[in-house]
Amino acid sequence: MGQTSGTHGGVGVYTNILVVYKKNFEEVHDAALATVRSVLDELVSENVVRVDYTARETVRRADFVGPDLVIVLGGDGTLTSIAHSIDDQTPIMGVNSHPRMNYSDGSYGFYMGSDPDNFADDIRMVMDGKAIVNVLPRLQAQIITTSGNKILTDPALNDLLVANTHQYQPSKYRLQRFSEGIDVIQQSSGCLFSTFLGQGAWFRHVANIEGTTFPIEQIDGHYLFVSRDLPRGDRDDDGSYWSWTDEPTVMTSDMHRGYVVADGWDEFHFTRGATVTVDLNGPTLQLLTFRSTIHDRVAHWIGE
What is the pTM of this model? Predict the structure, then answer.
């Protein structure tokens, strides 16, 4: 795939901005929203932009049709949930409303390139075309039902889970990765797929890959895979247990009911006999940062 991450320069003229904010009536988030609104009001008064606001709890996919810039105010969970509705042409700017550097119980905000203290300068950088544009690959699954219907799941910035809807029951499936010669029957607690950047969200808590680094030329075109809680005797080193791959993974369900969950958000259900194909062919995401690229934050995971 080879997408370029961390290019400088604008990706368009921004005249229509949508702000999606986290609404939980906590003072820190309300204060952050007031700061963002004050800065944007100044741009509106200069006839530079038009701005709409909506809470995450009430936002609809149709709200993302018109805007040419989406600002997400909250934390990583807010951004990843909103990103599902954003295409590969609309830049997204994350503003951490509760940054850990100011609050001990705050959010790390890995994907959040800005914060209330820097927002006024950062939005001007966006308007001037000086933001860093990180073009990030996303995972996506295609479900083909037994009747031949094709369903595309939401794209995932972090990870995809394919598992039995009843987590107390085993996930049974046929696992195939054709070009790698993998064709096995497995019974596990489900399969977890992660982008390179998403491995810190969940994957590293599931699979022991501490100390592993990944070639810089592969990080935009490969993804991570693991069969969760696979019996130890079945944890082969051929890529059927865990893998760093650029090939599609095909799972044929032997479960009465299963689901695909993108970034811990919406569920896409399937039944026995359905096939689920996972790869990195989802729409990319244009994520704006300002003082460093997103890959600079995980330089310890990147090898030559």
Answer: 0.92
